[in-house]
What we know:
This protein is an alpha/beta fold. It has 15 helices and 13 strands. It has 2 domains: 7-268, 3-Layer(aba) Sandwich (Carbamate kinase); 275-369, Archaeosine Trna-guanine Transglycosylase, Chain: A, domain 4, CATH 2.30.130.10. The strands form 2 sheets. An 8-stranded mixed β-sheet has the order 3-4-2-1-5-7-8-6, with helices on both faces. Strands 10-9-11-12-13 form a 5-stranded mixed β-sheet, with helices on both faces. The protein is globular and about 65 Å long. It binds glutamic acid (GLU).
Amino acid sequence: xxxxxxxxxxxxxxxxxxxxxxxxxxxxxxxxxxxxxxxxxxxxxxxxxxxxxxxxxxxxxxxxxxxxxxxxxxxxxxxxxxxxxxxxxxxxxxxxxxxxxxxxxxxxxxxxxxxxxxxxxxxxxxxxxxxxxxxxxxxxxxxxxxxxxxxxxxxxxxxxxxxxxxxxxxxxxxxxxxxxxxxxxxxxxxxxxxxxxxxxxxxxxxxxxxxxxxxxxxxxxxxxxxxxxxxxxxxxxxxxxxxxxxxxxxxxxxxxxxxxxxxxxxxxxxxxxxxxxxxxxxxxxxxxxxxxxxxxxxxxxxxxxxxxxxxxxxxxxxxxxxxxxxxxxxxxxxxxxxxxxxxxxxxxxxxxxxxxxxxxxxxxxxxxxx
Length: 370
Ligand code: GLU
């Protein structure tokens, strides 16, 4: 992988973000932003996955209890999302840090073309130094609003942006052996290996929904699984501690740390391998092969001499040079578009196709060397 900067995904659930005064917990957001600003100063790229739209919307609608009606919840989310983002924007602007709102649903991650679109736009935001603030697109999708308070969405985002670290912030110290609100003897589990068969995941998750926001432990464990599979270091930690993220940065013991056995490159290779055989083959010249494999560059149309196969935008394609496979990655163009632009300079692509498109055929972030 050619990524230079470390990348973190930080997830904040409704139990932290929602507040009594105007539906938003401004002091939590303030502390979070202060820490994120310190991470950015260290050259770390940060994505925030934040809930809180439903809670903010309920406040705006003067609803004191969470509605049972799904449609009303969706309406609350649509209303509250504006204030939620405004809350983050105001705090970040104190440090002259730009933010962006990105609403994503699980379908965007499952669908190959939309996956690539979402990934490319998030990576562009990060390259621009912007902090994307992601929420589930609750008004068109119901997964997290129904089950998870964004836990599994955040876990999936870790893979989407190739994050190195994933911190799920909650209102508890971490994951306990049992529900700490019910059982006095519940112990904080400082380290969890999800592959360890002896660990009583059922006991940990049993009855604990509601303890840590609406998602509870079940969805946090599921999110941790997704994150570990993507090769990211993963924590569940107390978001009420105003130093929680900076302590992670300093390498201190924080909350619950999930142990994983894979590194990022391994995970990515396994993931790419799991997508099956490439849908197309691109023949690239020696210059492009060298640029990809030695300089970590993207694949540009100018370096492609021929192509075979029928593939769509977002499909996996293999890059060959002198009969050797050099790399695999996700194409920003379908086969017939690519046929028109091979050999061209990047700045000639839009004129040739007649519409705005990517500058590279496979972005370096979407390439894995074979
Ligand atoms: N995405 C939702 C939000 O931001 C999830 C939280 C919930 O369902 O209460 O409000």
